Amino acid sequence: MKTVGRFTLKRAARSILRWSWVFLLGALVCATAPGETNAATPLRDLIAEAERNNPEIAAATHGWQAGTHTARQVSALPDTQLMVQQFAVGSPRPFAGFSNSDFAYIGFGVAQEFPYPGKRGLRAQAANQEADSLHAQADVLRTQIIEKLKTTYYELAYFQQSLEVLHSNDSLLTGIEQIAEARYRAGQGSQQEVLKAQLQRTRLLQEVTARQGSSERLQAMLKQLLGRAQDSADIIAEPLAVRPLATPPGELRRLAQQQNPGIRAANSMLGKTETQAALAHREFRPDFNVQYMYQHTGSAFRDYYMATLGVTLPNRGRKKAELAEATERHTQAGKQAETEIQRVQAEIQGQYAQAETSARQLKIYQEGLLPQSEAVFRAALAAYQSNRQDFQMLFSSWLERLDLELQYQRELLEHESALARIEALTGVTIQ
Length: 431
Description:
By secondary structure, the protein is α+β, with helices and mostly antiparallel strands. The protein is built from ten helices and four strands; from the N terminus they run ααααββααααββαα.
């Protein structure tokens, strides 16, 4: 009776320990898996929210809008000068000699500078091109933030789906452990098989904890990108699905040439430097100053009227240096635009290759590896239950099935991340 009691106590202790792990693992998985009352948030809704609320996008937009007011400033005439003059005769006192000398007077005048024709127009053109560059740079920032939002969203979806995979495989491992215990009680198996299953369930618990921490980190990043408070409700991502990439790489490169904000920014800067070089040529021309003065003397004398035309001659040495600088800036901007075009096209080609490779890999997983691993596991489980196969073969087939499912989810993440990068480079949306 004592032996039976000790065996019953040990079996009860093992059972309590096993179900403790079950409850703990289940609680961790359920804490990160989508619940029945929480609906997944579509990515397009989060993109629209980020465009409205992200402070970096708002700051860049205001910077561009501020730049649109520069052209009117630089193309306007210089400030008009109003002048009042008083000329005394015979004494420093104001209006001395005003009534007995035709030299004493009080005068009122106006002066205005006029740049050489064409300078104001070129300055306005350069300012407008600078505003276009700021607009393109704001689009670059917006594209980068949206791309980061997409990849973070996809990564969150990956971790949420991988937690579901771990939860599903934990249920299978629970069944394996129960079968191993039953065989052990019947004298057909060893205690080592039960302990090995329990050890693997503890490792699953460790993996769930690590992935839950990664999900929390991604939640914080998403909320920052969306401009949300960190204590707001967590986001549930839609499950990842393979999106086919039907557009050939040549068409993607053509679209990038037209729509990529980085290329547009480089081209705008190239246009600006070209206009600045033209303006540097025009700066060799003189500017003009026009003044008109009315001078009133005493009542016994006639008034004076004076008009003055002044010419500002440019310092040719300084202007030559400015022209040389503007020419070099234009050459630099041309090379930078060429570099940006080559970089974007090369990256499109690389991301396209990555997406195509991932698509082929996913097809191999879907049509070969995953169903084959499932068949091997089911056959090994049936053989183990009928005592035709040892525990190690069953355990290996289960572990391989788990690894392939997680690898499939990781490959799916790589595929969607490559498409997100292509979308950012080309400005297209892949449905």
